[in-house]
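task queued by scheduler; priority normal; single chain, no ligands, no partner chains; default sampling; output format set to structure tokens
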Amino acid sequence: MKIVLDFINQLSLNNNKEWFDKNKSFYQEAKDCFETFTQQLIANIETFDPTIRGLQVKDCTYRIYRDLRFSKDKTPYKTHIGAYICPNGKKSGLGGYYFHLEAQSKQYLSSHLLASGAVCLPNNIINSIREDVFSLPNEFQSCISNAKGWEIDTENKMKTVPKQFPKDAINAEYLKLKDFILSKKLNDSYVLSDNLLERVTQEFEKTMKFKEFINRAIQAVD
């Protein structure tokens, strides 16, 4: 994975078309390395989560070119790279497993990380998940507790408990959430370890029950 980190770090210092065009072969090597890893990761996750069977790399990865139409930042390329492995692919609207590498400039998510769950959800989906969190507090807490070493992301949440739920609910803080994800930050040494694939696979397996809880609520919405 070293070539991937090297590329995105260099790109973050030279985020322009001239440099990119001169380093197309560098980019292709990094892309090939990441896609090979992603294919292996898909195969490994399939061994414990049958809902993602049949996925291809293209179903899980993203273009490096930024959409500049509505952005004040006109740098043309992303300085991060990620793979979102979820049922029916990244556009399905379902929760899944996300592997993310970030340049040292830390302009996007501030670190390499693993994430599991779903973000940027429409209100009807958020409400469906909250209903299950409220009515099944022990199950939801168990899903979180099973993912040892992970944290539930509480950055994007409401200031108060939604009005349809009691303010003194046992899991009131979780009812405020707008995103429902578990995350685990990684450092360079973790990413460059010889057994990265095995470690990431084992970590994602810890979060499968959480992902299933979220997707059950998502799929309950007509």
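post-processing summary
- The first strand starts at residue 80 and ends at 85.
- The chain is about 45% helix and 15% strand.
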